Amino acid sequence: MKFKGTEYKLVNVQSGREFEDTGWTMFDLMGEAPALIRALYQNTQFTPRNDLNGIYRYADWMPVKRTLDGSCAPVTYKSKKLAKFLGLKNLYITFSGWNPKIGAKFKTCTFKETEAYSVLARMDENEKRILIVQSAGNTARAFAQVCSDNRVPVVICIPSDCLRELWFRKKLHKCVKVVAVPPGCDYYDAITVGEKLSIDPNYLLEGGARNIARRDGMGTTLLSFAEKTGRIPDAYFQAVGSGTGAVAAWENACRLAEDGRFGENHMKVYVAQNKPFSLIYDSWKAGSRDLVPMTEEEGRQKAGVILAKVLSNRKPPYSINGGLYDVLQQSGGDVFLADNEDILYWMMQYRNLEGYEIVPAACVAVSALAQAVKEEKVKKNDYVMLNCTGGGTLASMSKGCVYKEPDLVISPDASSEEIINKVNSLF
Q: What is the pLDDT of residue 1?
């Protein structure tokens, strides 16, 4: 039987106004203040679909019109050795990467595949516009791979300093075009190029945190935990650049609480950043809903020295209604920092304890968990979800890989007309 798509409405999280999705709705046109919109699914009970493969087993809580080939759902298992090392009884690791031994087969070794398979499935299969995706690395690799496998035209906007993230097992299909901003530029510069390109009606901006499909794809990590444990976690840990994944987890915790079979939502959301890129940390610790000031020069300099470069976002969805600030406040959560030395330490410790390697960003989350245990924010018997957002890179790359070179390098200061003309010439 062909999948007919998921039925849902949209709601403005600030005003509560419900309305229909016109196909690629990113915000409430009648909203009085900037706010995220959220999907209200017809099926209010969490119902994994055994008739669908990969991530689409969670399709009832994803705003999708179709399914695509090649996806994998996040894998949750109960930790033994890391849990013992930290003194925890109920530590569950939700892993999105490459580790076939536990059933994790993310080709690109990153949980950003959850975004890609959800966002692309929200698009109509007859969509003629070309998708624009802006990324600091992992999102670029995920969308490039999934678009290549499913022949979906896409323009990936990425900093040149992050091009090493664009490795693949084989050459990509020509439908994938990579546009890089010059060395020394950062993620926000890549966002600028994408926004200028989107002025052309032949292109479709993916939308970032405002895209319900991105958030609900990422939120499948929490659904994996709930399916494994039958409950909402007491504490949730994730490293963040934008914080979109943490917002997504909170939204699904709220849905699970409304279901009624998974307990009340007392989940504390704990996020972490790679020091010295500490924009979210500094803003939260200042008690500020608004982001503290960060100049372009400062942002680029700090992004250049951190190991987890995917965590360097100068414009995260922190202040917006329904964004990360609200999630941290409503959940009673907190923000932690991990420096490069912490990352290297936990990279080795995690490999020794759990038996596989994780990416630097995931090590930041492990460091945050260790700090929370030390500070007694997490109790020994708490049910803890550690969202390890990527790993298995070395094991996957050992099978051989090729790198995707940029099809175009252009300054974020270039005019929209110049960017549009040069990108158009690529197709």
A: 54
Token pair in block for residue 83? 């849990």
Cα(380)–Cα(272) distance, integer angstroms = 21
Q: Shortest CA distance to 203 belongs to which of 145, 141, 157?
A: 157
Query: Alpha-carbon dihedral of residues 263, 47, 26, 94, nearest 10 degrees?
Result: 70
Structural domains in the chain, sorted by start: 75-109+213-396 (3.40.50.1100)
First and final CA of the chain: distance in angstroms?
36
Say yes or no to pLDDT of 64 above 90.
yes
- H helices within 108-177, ranges in order? 112-122, 138-150
Are 133 and 157 a contacting pair, CB within 8 Å?
Answer: yes
What integer is the mean pLDDT of 364-391? 97
Q: Supply 112's token pair.
A: 């950003």
Residue 192 backbone class (left: φ over 0; alpha: ψ -120 to 50; beta: rest): alpha
In 3D space, the residue among 234, 184, 277 whose CA is nearest the CA of residue 369 turns out to be 234
Q: Please state whether the peptide bond connecting residue 276 to the residue before it is cis, i.e. omega within 30 degrees of 0.
A: yes
The mean pLDDT of 64-81, rounded to a whole number, is: 96
> To which residue do tokens 């959800």 refer?
118
Structure tokens at 180: 């890089």
Average pLDDT over residues 157-177: 92
**117 Cβ contact list (under 8 Å, min separation 6):** 54, 55, 56, 68, 71, 146, 217
- For residue range 289-322, list pLDDT tens digits in order: 999 999 989 998 998 899 998 898 888 999 999 9
Q: d(Cα 334, Cα 281) in Å, to the nearest integer?
A: 9
Residue 34 has, within 13 A of its CA and on its CB side, a CA count of: 8
111 vs 133: CA distance, rounded Å:
16
pLDDT recorded at residue 60: 97
d(CA 268, CA 276): 24
pLDDT in tens, 319-332: 999 999 999 999 99
Mean pLDDT, the chain, whole residue set: 95
Q: Round to whole Å and give the CA distance between 220 and 121.
A: 15
**pLDDT class of 162 with cuts at 50, 70, 90:** confident
- Which pair of structure tokens corresponds to residue 80? 């033994």
- E strand residue ranges, 135-294: 154-159, 167-168, 176-181, 203-205, 235-239, 268-274
